[in-house]
Request: fold
Amino acid sequence: MAEINVVPYIDVTLVLLIIFMVTAPIVQQAVSVQLPQTPEISEKKSKSVSEEPTPFVITVTADGLYRTSENPDLTLSNKELADLVAEVVARSQLNAALPIYIQGDRAAPYGKVVHLFTLLKANGVANVSLMTEPETNEGAAR
Reply:
């Protein structure tokens, strides 16, 4: 009697199913970023300048310190980071359409930028974006 033994195939299938179930949440972890959109050139300005809120920009300097667009002369350290996050959360609760941008210097520690981004997202600030500069042809040739 020549029959195929199906039990090993079922065992292998169940093991693969368990592996995929364990690895799927790990693979799906990503940082969601809402990129700023530029208006089309042919679009007429139907909105006045006063209707669009001015974005709140947080800068991470090369030294790992923080500055804001509201008070660019004031440098904040890690100790004042909680106050900065509280201010941004309050601003976003008052105006949900207010864009919050984080710009980091090229020499800034990457962990500081990501830490600030995740702190804001974890505290309910939905409109947070990372600012980048478009690459020039000179930079692409390197």
Q: What stands out?
A: The mean pLDDT is 80.
